[in-house]
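If you are new to this repository, start here. Below is one unmodified record pulled from the training split, so you can see the exact layout before writing a loader.
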Amino acid sequence: MHESSITGKLIAVEGLDGSGKSTQVYLLHQWLISLGCRVYFTEWNSSTLVKEATRKGKKRQLLTPTTFSLIHATDFADRYERQILPMLKGGYIVLCDRYMFTSFARDAVRGCDKAWLRKLYGFARVPDIVFYFKLPLETALGRILEGRPELKYFEAGMDLDLSPDIEESFRIFQGRVRDQYESMVPEYGFTLLDATLNVHEQQKKVREIIGRKIDLAKYHQRKVG
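And here is the target side for that same chain:
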């Protein structure tokens, strides 16, 4: 598909687990709908094609770093071809709760080559805006533990044998993921947001930035009749 045939806009949110990015993209989605915009939402690791394989692989802890990366890339490619690209061509604003940068960060920490990862996702266009929600590790850990009784095996990087203590493993793993994200800020021109601000302040900033960078009037739903 030629770039000239794409009239939609692509917006992605990235950040550590617990950064609040999912809340912010949900609020953004609702706001754009209220404005009457053509908008579509998709989230990481949600393709029905590979979701069950991913779940089983995680549950049985059978996934090597490369297999883990390839499964997520397959999930992403399926959603990209079936959902994201058609919606962009149809003139929609597409919101992504995590994009290929999640793989670039997590899979690099698990030992996958950075150049290989970027080539693996070479079919995907870079978003028009990438919001990176920056948050201290201890705050992220606190939010995760507050929301549920225990950490998940893979989000804590337990497969890497960083520490027998799951909370310490989380700190180490997420710290390394954060470092990968930080290195991508200049590489991809991420828009940084302070994720320690309250929900409403963050959302206000998100809307202001989008209002400056995108002519939302072009994406209003066409009235029939």
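Two things worth knowing about this chain: The radius of gyration is 18 Å. The first strand starts at residue 9 and ends at 15.
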